[in-house]
Amino acid sequence: MKRLGDVIVLELPATLMGTPSVIHPVALVGPDHILTLVDTGLPGMLDAIIGELHAADFTLGQVRRVIVTHHDLDHIGSLDAVVHATGAEVWALETEVPYVTGERRAQKLPSPEQAQAMLADPDLNPVMRALLTREPTRVPVSRALRDGDLLPGHVRVIATPGHTPGHLSLLVPGGNILISGDALTSQDGALHGPLSRAGQVDVQTIVTYHGGVVSDDAGGQLRALAASLDS
What we know:
The chain is an alpha+beta fold. Helix content is 24%, strand content 29%. It contains seven helices and 17 strands. It has helices spanning 46-55, 73-76, 79-86, 97-100, 112-119, 126-133, 218-230, and strands at 2-4, 7-9, 12-16, 19-23, 26-29, 35-38, 63-68, 89-93, 143-145, 150-151, 155-159, 168-172, 177-181, 185-187, 190-192, 205-208, 212-214. The strands form four sheets. A seven-stranded mixed β-sheet has the order 1-2-5-6-7-8-9, covered by helices on one side. It has a six-stranded mixed β-sheet with strand order 10-11-12-13-16-17, with no helix packed on it. It has a two-stranded antiparallel ribbon with strand order 3-4. The mean pLDDT is 90.
């Protein structure tokens, strides 16, 4: 866990595509110590989230809302568990809402016909088999967000489509911190794409879901990355 003012960066060990990794949901501290959780990790991560919040002297019961950056399983896997435990509202960009509620099939899954063919293979990777047979997340969304919306604490919603059509990032004014979701990644403090409109934002620190906190000339790295991808 890292604390950046009112931004708590969680550090959750995970195995992604067979490789050990760490993913970084975020908790935003609002008035009266109310928490907004940004993404919820993989399925089964509720206890790990609780542990990281405790390390920052908060409890799960202080989570009143969850913002979904997008519908990928490593971001919404424990969403239903968090909502069940807290009664928190769920907010997502309006384009992503039908995937969160389960009205539409997850964007990155193969078609039903392709899935059936894959499941017929006895040598199918167990992780992929579990993914294809897992019940989809179906969670009501209380607020459909739009680009430019201002949230509690003057946090600004930035629509960053590309990774998914309804991907969002958040700009936290205290310290000009960009929570990028999967619009950006990083490794050892160095910023990488993919990238979309996030390149137009003036920031001092960037929190990437895959890679963690980027603080060394984050704004300069972001501008350079945007320029390289535009050229």
